[in-house]
């Protein structure tokens, strides 16, 4: 059971998934907010039942799964519905993430959350780790990776907490503007620190 939680975050294209996977390769359990957010609205879940009761079966696909694009359209067009959905799902996501952290069989656990600070998830963790790169590099990497426009990436960056704000809040920062080999060394150094902080022998 892991009692020590590291909150891992970083803007789009920063490489937080790469960092998370390096921790995972060293035997650390990952709890990913994006995966949990999908689980709480999966077919047959309480979350999906509540959404269907509230909005009707128009938000279901023929196979009974959530029609994500339809739901996105509804909450994009109506602030009240967006607030209702957030009030329903955020507590479910937090509860599930904390349970998964508690059940984790590693010395500490990494909670991966793109909106760690924005959604107040940093209050649930013992320490925060930010994967940081310049906005220019964010744009360059994301445009190349996702085949989207620079404007699209700028809109996403603009909707998140500023780089300065995240840097001021993070306990630890990994500068990911270099090579993967340098990144692995940085993660290994933090891994050793987190083993000490979680005060359990490896």
Automatic annotation (TrEMBL):
Pathway: Cofactor biosynthesis; coenzyme A biosynthesis; CoA from (R)-pantothenate: step 5/5
Main location: cytoplasm
SUPFAM superfamilies cross-referenced by the UniProt entry: P-loop containing nucleoside triphosphate hydrolases
Presence of keyword ATP-binding: yes
Residues given in the record as ATP binding sites: 13-18
One Gene Ontology MF term: kinase activity
EC number: 2.7.1.24
InterPro entries: Depp_CoAkinase, P-loop_NTPase
Keywords: ATP-binding, Coenzyme A biosynthesis, Cytoplasm, Kinase, Nucleotide-binding, Transferase
Compartments where found: Cytoplasm
CDD domains linked: DPCK (cd02022)
Top EC class of this enzyme: transferase
This protein's record includes keyword Nucleotide-binding: yes
Pfam families xrefs: CoaE
Top-rank taxon, per record: Bacteria
Catalysed reaction equations from the record: 3'-dephospho-CoA + ATP = ADP + CoA + H(+)
Functional description taken from the UniProt entry: Catalyzes the phosphorylation of the 3'-hydroxyl group of dephosphocoenzyme A to form coenzyme A.
UniProt similarity note: Belongs to the CoaE family.
Name of this chain's protein: Dephospho-CoA kinase
UniProt source species: Shewanella sairae
Gene behind this protein: coaE
